[in-house]
């Protein structure tokens, strides 16, 4: 099973999942596509984030959501998954793989945002300033500019569509509070966890990513103990949306190569008996 880790605060996870559902036929028949808890609208919480939530009710809810992620796997999946993490979702995927290695068979990290040291100085901003900054994320012009950075040569009509999709989650009543709380918590800082990843990992990177340099993809490849890296030409920060066929093919090859190796090992053992 392919399980997608996305960040509900920063990314409309349903858009990511739906973009993949059109390509499920490219994968091996025994694999199905499922959204992670985050993709269903629940944010992923690292332990320190839960501890830093000041409101008792909100902290209790965050703890329940954190437990729900593990319960989802233990109750309904009950076998190791191939965990796919695009952008900031890669930080969630790495954190989950380290905390629950028995739940993750392999990792696929797409244009991974894993070297940002949390939210930095934004964690100490006065609340009024933080809310003012967050409100800018709803800006039509800002969203269109982000599309210029995220995609490679996107037609204007498509850019407008993605601008509208990118703003959807900003319209929730709770979104501003959730985003400010995320900033105040310190955000994700998983760089120290990277060497602890033992699962075989596929790194996919858009060669023309203007948001996260492909040099960081090379660095990630060097720091992960068991990883391969594949770059997609003429592609920006969101390859699974911009070049879905290419990404589906790479994941299919990644999965099948491992299956072929396992099959050959089994045949070798059988011949020696």
Automatic annotation (TrEMBL):
InterPro entries: AB_hydrolase_1, AB_hydrolase_fold. Residues 68-249 form the AB hydrolase-1 domain. It comes from the Eukaryota. Pfam families: Abhydrolase_6. This is AB hydrolase-1 domain-containing protein. It comes from Linum tenue.
């Amino acid at each position: 099973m392919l399980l997608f880790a996305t960040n509900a605060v920063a990314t409309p996870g349903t858009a990511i999942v739906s973009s993949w559902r059109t390509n499920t036929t490219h994968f091996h028949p025994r694999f199905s596509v499922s959204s992670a808890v985050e993709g269903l609208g629940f944010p992923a919480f690292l332990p320190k984030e839960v501890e830093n939530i000041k409101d008792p009710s909100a902290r209790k809810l965050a703890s329940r959501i954190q437990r729900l992620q593990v319960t989802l796997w233990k109750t309904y999946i009950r076998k190791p998954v191939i965990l796919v993490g695009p952008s900031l979702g890669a930080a969630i995927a790495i954190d989950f793989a380290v905390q629950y290695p028995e739940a993750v068979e392999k990792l696929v990290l797409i244009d991974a945002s894993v070297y940002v040291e949390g939210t930095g100085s934004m964690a100490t901003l006065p609340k009024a300033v933080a809310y003012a900054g967050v409100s800018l994320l709803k800006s039509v012009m800002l969203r269109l500019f982000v599309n210029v950075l995220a995609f490679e040569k996107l037609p204007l009509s498509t850019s407008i569509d993605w601008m509208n999709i990118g703003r959807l989650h900003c319209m929730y009543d709770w979104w501003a509070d959730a985003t400010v709380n995320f900033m105040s918590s310190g955000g994700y800082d998983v760089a120290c966890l990277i060497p602890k990843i033992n699962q075989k990992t596929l790194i996919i990177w858009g060669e023309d990513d203007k948001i996260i340099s492909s040099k960081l993809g090379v660095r990630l490849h060097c720091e992960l103990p068991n990883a391969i890296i594949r770059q997609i030409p003429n592609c920006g920060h969101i390859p699974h949306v911009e070049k879905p066929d290419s990404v589906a093919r790479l994941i299919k090859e990644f999965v099948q190569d491992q299956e072929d190796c396992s099959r050959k090992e089994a045949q070798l053992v059988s011949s020696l008996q």
